[in-house]
Structure to design on (185 residues):
């Protein structure tokens, strides 16, 4: 399924994802410039553009696919735990139904995810009105294994699985966005 998701702050969250297998979220991790882990955030993709549409070609497969063919800028593979149900990338301001309508349905558990990207440097750190980045994302059931940048052979610095994040006891109070008093009377 091909669709557009709107990146904002270089971010597309992976709806339906619970956690990375070997990317620690504390303090935060950016692997190969594309896989992002941070405390309190779901697994995310870090885009080249600061804001704007990103084309996503998302496919769920029964088993490991062949190596990607063609001209791609970056290819990474990782293992990710999913909650089951709709899965796919969505921008912070995309409608919550985007992934339900255009994503793939996965069973709960571990999947392997391959992300092949093109156009990441075309408008790096810019806001765009038309998609210049394209991501081919393939997922399939597989026992978790180490994250790897297939373009370079790079692996994360962790040596194995990362324990799930636990509640640190921090309480976060919601704040209304436009609920502030003027500085001057």
């Amino acid at each position: 399924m091909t669709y557009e998701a709107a990146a904002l702050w270089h971010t597309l969250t992976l709806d339906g994802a619970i956690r990375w297998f070997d990317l620690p979220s504390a303090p935060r991790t950016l692997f190969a410039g594309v896989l992002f882990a941070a405390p309190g955030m779901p697994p995310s993709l870090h885009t080249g553009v600061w804001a704007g549409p990103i084309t996503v070609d998302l496919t769920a497969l029964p088993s490991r696919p062949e190596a990607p063919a063609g001209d791609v800028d970056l290819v990474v593979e990782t293992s990710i735990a999913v909650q089951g149900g709709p899965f796919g990338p969505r921008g912070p301001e995309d409608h919550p139904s985007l992934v339900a309508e255009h994503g793939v349905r996965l069973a709960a558990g571990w999947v392997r995810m391959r992300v092949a990207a093109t156009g990441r440097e075309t408008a790096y750190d810019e806001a765009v009105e038309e998609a210049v980045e394209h991501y081919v994302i393939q997922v399939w059931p597989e026992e978790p294994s180490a994250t790897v940048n297939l373009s370079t052979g790079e692996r994360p610095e962790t040596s194995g699985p990362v324990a799930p994040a636990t509640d640190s006891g921090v309480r976060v109070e919601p704040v209304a966005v436009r609920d502030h008093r003027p500085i001057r009377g």
The radius of gyration is 17 Å. The first helix runs from residue 97 to 102. The chain has one domain: 2-149. The longest strand covers residues 51-60.
